[in-house]
Amino acid sequence: MHPEYARNLASFAYVWGWPLADMDNRRAALARTPGAGRLAMRDAPVTPHQTAGACPDPDLVHGAGLFSLGETPVVLQVPDFGDRYWVYGLYDGRTEQFGRLGRAYGSRPGFYALIGPNWEGQIPAGITGVFRSPTEMASAVPRAFMNDTDEDRAAIQPILNLISAYPLSEFDGTLKIVDWSRAPTLPGPAPEGEGETKRVDPETFFDRLPDLLDRIPPLLGEEALYAQFRLILAVAERDPQLKAAMVEQAHEAEATTLKRFLEWRHNGHPAGNGWNRSTNNARWGIDYFNRTGTARSNMFDNRPEETQYFYTDLDGDGRPLTGARNYVVTFAAGQEPPVKGFWSLTLYNRHHLFHPNPLARYSLGTRNTSLKRNADGSLTLYVGADSPGPEHESNWLPAPDDGFSLYIRAYWAGAAVLDGSWRPPEVLRIP
Known about the structure:
Residues 306-413 form the DUF1214 domain. This protein is α+β, with helices and mostly antiparallel strands.
């Protein structure tokens, strides 16, 4: 095999397989912890010191379970959330959603079984619904809205304690209670530097790829692609120099392509006023570009009808956002994101993580009960390292001194968001 052909194919294999490897390494890390095959749930939103995932959502309390469904189905326990927005994202080994479970779908409280692609056992009475994953590797990510009041934080705790997952063999039709406020912190790899915890290693990627190809079957039309990957892996097994060249190519792809995926202009498509918006989120198919871009920049998107995402690194004039300047984002009266769920504007540092600040404030939107509107009904949010003054501080998102990005989420978005007729406002630099 010509070495340059192998190098080029290796580079593509690395970019193509990066989300699969990230997903599998998350599953493997949880499999080494007590209670493997279950679900870990938080009792409050994520804080800045937690680096397990980029672009954490500050408006939701969420959890995660990563399962191997080859032989053992899993039961997801869904409590009665009342009028509260909630969704359980169900993802296969490609980070693609395969089930619809949440308030936007009219889902009922109860017990839902996750089963693997080849499981043919008996579902017991009392199971509310069944979701079959197209891959044996699967993930469940429960999310529940909580506003910024102490009252709501107290009100949500009994609901959170009824969110659970366990093997089907343990199902007895009764609600199991877990006090998540007393749950131990799950061990995991430490982040390298200031960014998200790193899970994909160019040095070992091609050692892991054969197993991923075996466990995650090709989509229709991907058979030839899988055959090409298997070919270079087979040749590299006999040729150490070729294997070294492939690993070198993976390092280069990590330092170039994957690094650039942290820039929002490489995620989705333009949405106007300097923003980009998500594309094909959680239903990627063969959109490998956006699948890998999202896995690198903000893993575990929801489907478009569940959530629309808008993001930018730039102000309205196309200049990078920086804490050396201050900005305003003004939603005209009646022009906040039209949603049936909720919306928010979140600020992330240059690593797509929260910026620690004295207000412990990382987003503004529906959940914030103290926002002040202008006399004409419009809503101005202030963004920057410097306080806009006491009269505007309730509407201030503190920024770091260096670069940062902004991110709008529209949960259970209305038609104007889905069809693109609603546009996010410009990020205007204060002179």
